[in-house]
Amino acid sequence: MSRRLFTSESVTEGHPDKIADQISDTILDALLEQDPASRVAVETLITTGLVHVAGEVTTAAYADIPTLVRNKILAIGYDSSKKGFDGASCGVSVSIGAQSPDIAQGVDTAYETRVEGGAPEGQGDELDRQGAGDQGLMFGYACDETPELMPLPIHLAHRLSRRLSEVRKNGTIPYLRPDGKTQVTVEYDGDKAVRLDTVVVSSQHASDIDLDSLLAPDIREFVVEPVLAALVGGGVKLDTGGYRLLVNPTGRFEIGGPMGDAGLTGRKIIIDTYGGMARHGGGAFSGKDPSKVDRSAAYAMRWVAKNVVAAGLAARCEVQVAYAIGKAEPVGLFVETFGTA
């Protein structure tokens, strides 16, 4: 069978784009907690010393957005100007309006009810009377490479990113800072993952940290090796001997987070899904309530794909669904099992 390399990446909670995602979702969660019927579409821009929140919200709830923003940034770990960003003192601006009434009328009363004479209010399933908040196509995917039914490269990259945050917060590697990225390259023999080829770990760190004598050995000992041991110990069959490890390949990563790069909600859509192993419809998740099918339909299709694989019906499954704005029912549904059924 043909051999190939496949690569996926992940980021830590302190990556500027992921900070933006978390801020958008924190605001969403606060509104949904008070009013589950909230319509929310919140976008966040974060840059040096400033967070700007914009979007459309229709809700009966109240949220102190600046406080939510600051608390989230502090919880991530940006709590000092020495780290390049301080959630306690940064500027927060808010520009939020109401959802467009043109969109709202299609979500409130679906096309099937308005035009096709579907079940009136009080009859049938209430969700059948709610239209999709936008048009679009969404994918769900699952495979049997890991116990979580996720592709191995993105699964491993996520574990490394979570471990980076863990050793920073518990003091194992106290000089790390919140921003970081991981990347994993796995060799496949046909459709089977057989060997770990390359691991890249880039982590923001304090000043005066030597890469070769301190950072690289610590990353190998306290981040990469424990994650690989847990992976193999969890039943994943993969040759992890002789992999190449690259730590901070530029040589230094002191300036990070929003000071190093501006962050935006929705720029890590491949990381948020399957690491490139499956197709993507283009819509982001964060800051969107369930009426936005970019999020809810992608979650639902992941559930479908997982159940197909978990039931042993296929080793790999990808499901596409498509919606028209204002319609309750999908306009398209497609299931692909890649010859593994």
UniProtKB/TrEMBL annotation:
Enzyme nomenclature, EC number: 2.5.1.6
Protein name: Methionine adenosyltransferase
GO cellular component: cytoplasm
Keywords: ATP-binding, Cytoplasm, Magnesium, Metal-binding, Nucleotide-binding, One-carbon metabolism, Potassium, Transferase
Primary localization class, coarse: cytoplasm
Gene Ontology biological process terms from the UniProt entry: one-carbon metabolic process; S-adenosylmethionine biosynthetic process
Subcellular location: Cytoplasm
Occurrences of domain S-adenosylmethionine synthetase C-terminal (ranges): 255-340
Species of origin: Streptomyces pini
Subunit structure: Homotetramer.
